[in-house]
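Summary for the steering committee. The consortium agreed at its last meeting that each partner would contribute one worked example illustrating the joint modelling workflow. Our contribution is presented below. We chose a case with several input lines so that the handling of multiple components could be demonstrated. No manual editing was applied between input and output; the record is shown as generated.
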Amino acid sequence: MTQKPEEPEEREQLQKIRAGDVRTASRLIRNLEDESPEARNAMKRIFPYTGRAHVVGITGSPGAGKSTLVDALIASFRKQRKGVGVLAVDPTSPFTGGAILGDRIRMQRHAEDPGVFVRSLATRGALGGLSKAVGDAVHVMDVMGKELILVETVGTGQQEVEIINHSHTVIVVLVPGMGDEIQAIKAGIMEIADIFVINKADRDGSHQLLNELMAMLNMVPEFPGGWRPPVIRIGNCFDPGPFAESLGELAAAINDHYRSLVETDLLGDRMKRKTMVEIHEALRDAILAPILKEMTESGEMEEIAGRLLRKETDPYTIAEEVARRRLK
Amino acid sequence: MNMYFSKNTLDQSARLTANWEDEVRRSAEGNAERKARWSTVSDLEVKRLYTPEDIAETDFARDIGAPGAYPFLRGNQATGYRGRCWTFRMFSGMGSAKDTNTRWRMLLKEGQTGLSTAFDFPTLMGYDSDSPKARGECGRCGVAIDTLDDFLSLMDGIPMDRVTTSMTINPPATALWAMYCAAAESNGVPLTKIGGTIQNDMLKEFIAQKTFMCPPEPSVRLISDTVAFGTQHVPKWNTISISGYHIREAGSTAVQELAFTLRDGIEYVEDVIRRKGLDVDEFAPRLSFFFNAHIDFFEEICKMRAARRIWARVMRDRFHAKNPRSLWMRFHTQTAGCSLTAQQPYNNVVRTAVEALAAVLGGTQSLHTNSLDEVLCLPSDHAVEIALRTQQILAEETGVANTIDPLAGSYFVESLTNRMEEGALAYIEKIDGLGGMIAAIEKGFPQMEIADAAYRFQQQIEAGEKVMIGVNKYENAAKQEIPVLDIDERIEEEQIARLAEVKRKRDSRAVKRDLDALKSACKTGKNVMPFCIEAVKDRATVQEICDVYREVFGEYRDPGLY
Amino acid sequence: MTEKKIRIMVAKPGLDGHDRGARILARCFRDAGFEVIYTGCHQTPEQIAATAIQEDVDLVGLSCLSGAHRYLFPRVVELLKEQGADDIVVIGGGIIPDQDFQTLYDAGIKAIFTPGSPLDTIVRWVRTNIRPRVNL
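What follows is the complete predicted structure of the assembly.
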């Protein structure tokens, strides 16, 4: 273990991140992914400065064109002179623990733009389409001064509702003819959408998908804050003119949604939701994780497993015992 | 249906084969085979023995026939290589136009019968030598061409009315072909007299080689422009060389190479008919193909034989072509670069010889043999000479060209040829179902099929299931030193200086006018070729022309499928 | 604390699109348990250096088959150094003659792998020479 860094270095780290230094920020994100205690201490110092960025989550099934949309959104928001951060999540292989993080391939034309910071994250076993470090990484980019932070989920189509806990605006991307609608409804991601995108809308089935979405939205009696999710159709990205036009529409909808959150005071609710998730996670890390670690290392876990298999006790009794013993 | 074998023969075969199998089972107890599974380099399983039953369904007239006649399994020409030997065409180009011209003259003097141009990467990607993106690439893996002046020195002293020239050029094909046309004119040779090929096959770039510029749809449109222009004005030119070579080098199987290449061909034919309104027989005779000759001897021969038969059937049944020449699948072959090893490089001579033999037995019209040092650098003079001599030995010493399609009728060869065709047709059907090749490419289908095959092969190498001598077997710690060709670092600055000089001297207003005219042709759908020719004559550069395309059609970026 | 991961960027500088090797390597690194950032073909050295820093990788693997490695590889090292990231190790592969090895080593390329290098050898090299960075 390295020694705890000196006080001036800690201050310097914070200053550098606040000044937008990519090297320092990316290293901190790396340490957050590795769950180093120093990184947690750094987050304590960073936290007071968070809360300024508009965080936009982008979810949808694989092949829906999320990365291409993110690339186009970067270009669009850079024209508005906003600093943009991107967190792109790709899955970790459950077999090898490795991952290929390839979302940023589509965004490489922005690699040299100092106003854009793209960071790829692997899920490292986290469920819900995100990485465990995503919430903290959002904070880091926020403190760097990124006004817009785009979070791209893995896109397995499975229960990717986690994104709502980390963003103010959620975009759900659907593609015609992929059976997406049904999948999306099943996975419960329809309810989380603030904006729908029908991507590759030049394909067959685009009108049908639009009609189905409209029918579904028409059944909703009342939208929170009066925000009815718009449905934006985006054409073939190889057709430069029309693509740029529909993209402009999407960028405007993102800004409109944020304004609506502010005007209807719903922004506070969304931020509170994020805070609640964070405190839950932090409590789990601070209380549960050390107990589990100790019980595993001491062999107690192994012993409990044996007792459970022999039906000498049950998990509920064990949990109550541990709580009594540890949480006095 | 006419059976290939009589019922009597098949009965005999079944009986004798059954006896033989019993015998093998008995002897196998004490004498097991060296491995459990035998397969081609593409991992196609191969049986212990092939018998008449394996081709029992073959109908001789329908499936085999005679050379020079439908379905052209046995070759396009009735006289095979006895009438006309394949063309010895060595792909070459390096440094400046002058350097390449020197190499070309050497090759022609040594008995080469056709030219084949390798351009450097800036030229291939449509950038001039002075572009920041060209840094370090100028003249490195081919010849640097920026303007017509470069092209004129490339062709200096080459009889353009007699020697045919192939140009491996894709996104900027219109610009480079325009230069060839302008150079011919300046040498007093009419367009009707010049012959050659531009590769001009963009679909395989999206699928495999990644030398791309504009998105698929406008890329195909530019190709259709060249096909239409050639049909009208340059009748001896092959305006496209539909290429499987790069698909294979990217790691595909033989069947994938065959299938994706032919499906690309179908896409081009459909586009020209739809967009240009030409009759299939007007342009189909000038379509040419380009295959890889990999190391698995029989698989390659069968792939090439199958290619001819499938294309003839596709042209007749799908496009209703009437002209027999429309049914011909004419192709160039290059031995497999990816089969060569940096370790023990002299072994590459042997690999290339075997691959070249496969190409000849597969009935290629034209052949490039790789040099032994191509895994290390551009070929040196000495290495190129060995490679060229390899072809000459095959043609003039070995007797393999004495008779036409000598392997026809082999149970194994005919059966494997059938399997190649079946496998390719299944892929073609699948791609039809995806909405055609452009749609399939946008979905990443062929790209992922190839990536999976390449990774599977690599894992087989790692596991020792497939062997590369010197790489995973019979490794030798001692290095074989070979002389390598060095490209002079000064080439870049000299080329940039030459370009600056041309730009200084030319009439920039004329260039601007030409480029504006080209831009409007791009937008209105007029054929771009006449506008390109005008522009290059006024010394517009390759990049200036390509910048027009990029501006009007947009740029394609690597979707990076892995 | 979870296990520290080695992060590797696989990049193709320059204009050549022969990405068979790069893509196979990306898959192989994933299967070896590394996190791989793959950026596709046609990257400039500037894009590669910026990406390496944004992604905080331990290692950059460059693949070039066009002969332009003599300019492109050293340029990536130089840019990383200029941006205070010279702790990021750079290795290279592709069509590279023996004659160029020393020049590339002198320019700061730590290892070179030519066609036919077993994947196993490359992975072993990474495990021996690259330790995931420890903290700040």
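The two ends of chain C are 15 Å apart (CA to CA). Chain C has a mean pLDDT of 92.
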